[in-house]
């Protein structure tokens, strides 16, 4: 059957989903009439792009012949050309198919075009030693499909197998069932397949292939699934891939989508409370358009809701770059200050902005972890006008860019750090945790500087401009491109923005102040409202909302309902401590009091005694001393307006990764020996850096 149809007046076609009849045709336009006597005149070229001939009852869609012809070998092409010559000679008397290209001696008498077609078929069959019916079938295929119709189907169809399809189906079922189990051997998997077939069909009903054939077919069926080799983690990830076409978010400008995700770091860090190694988690916010890291936070063991709130605060707030950072590590804000939103105190002259683009996201893409969809995070996003778009559970393709960042971080930085443990247990060294000497906040500083100095300045294959697809761009360059094309989004903000990110505690106001977590706070702002009910309703009717920063419980924050101004409340023991004091340290003080035999320890008394020992240098053990050092150098998740930014120290590892660039360090100042430290020799030599941290409080302001 010919694949061509004739276009003429009176012909019937399907156009725009309707059956139409051609009523007029010229060289440029065509007029058709559809059902209901509707007439349409369109250009012929436009009509031909959307028209199709009505399908006949016996018509079927044939497979494309291009792949079959392209898959022939040189010998196959020569055989096809020779067969085509024979068919053309039988049909026309000439091997070329036309008298104008006749070869010497053509036409031969037995293939003279004047002879009947049946005689020519018989002569060609006698010449080739085949049946006349075969030559007739070749001629029919040539008229319909051309030379492609003469292909030997046995050479273009995939080789058939003698393996029972039920055996292959059982293999696929067993492979799918063992996705979350430990990796088996091929023999164990085949034994399970045989047991499955006997259970379903009976013994000996389904024949099993020979052993070598079974191993070969099993390897073919398990290809790309990690069922027989590879990591179990990758096998689970492969099984969770979408079965259809991958979809993706498409950002058109910076700040449109911010991707949030948490990943366990493949490196051990030092836990400041117990002085032992601990696993660390990294939570990041990444801009989808530029691939810039908007904010990051390193936490021990697991991420809390307040850490995510602090991450959001970093995302929408510019920070001051540490003086130790090289100039090239700065984000590209210079020259376009009109697109940035600052507070007046942050826009002071001479202040260099660090790597948090002031481009608050319109949409956050998060996973379904409780810390991301907690009431605290949802309320903060609602206040800022940010919509939350959850990613599909167990579908890493919803956040491919941030997943790729975690891999880049591991390969570009983490594997060069001490106490690197590798991506899996098979890659882990011997006693790598003993090399952990970076505290969690130091590890965060290293990652933050690496992102600013290296990652944001490295060209990414995934960043491209549609107008220039071959141009490789870095996140910084993509950021500049986005600003030039769309500009930055402006959102209203004020210095009081940070209070929205603090967790809320509803308490009653007493004559002595307010008590949160066993700590009493007081301040002049409470005077008009002591022993009175709040105007707030709901399940906390009559109680007042008090906000406390878990990283620094020395202060609580109260918003006056009369003028909506914020006021700081001071913890009664805060004057005895000049450094931030976290809620974890408060719990540690209570545990120390319980250990000393006090069944009902007073929180204030226990903390007062602990602070007194820390301030005088009389630390009772290494755990308390390490806690003191940690509190002295702790980076808060939510920096409050009263707190100054803490400088970040450049580490030698980053200098080496950056190609030998020298970092700027403050001059080293001699310090006096610490008095009152009663460490034993075993404690001193157990950790090589004890002497360094023992005098940490001597150099603190």
TrEMBL record:
| PROSITE patterns xref list | INTEGRASE
Q: Which domain of life is it from?
A: Bacteria
Q: Which GO terms describe its molecular function?
A: nucleic acid binding
Q: Where is the composition biased (Basic and acidic residues)?
A: 662-674
Q: Where is the composition biased (Acidic residues)?
A: 675-689
From its record, what is one biological process in GO terms? DNA integration
Ranges for domain Integrase catalytic: 250-483
* InterPro entries the record matches: InsJ-like_HTH (IPR055247), Integrase_cat-core (IPR001584), RNaseH-like_sf (IPR012337), RNaseH_sf (IPR036397)
Renumbered to this chain, region (Disordered) spans 661-689
Name-wise, this protein is Transposase
This protein's species is Frankia nepalensis
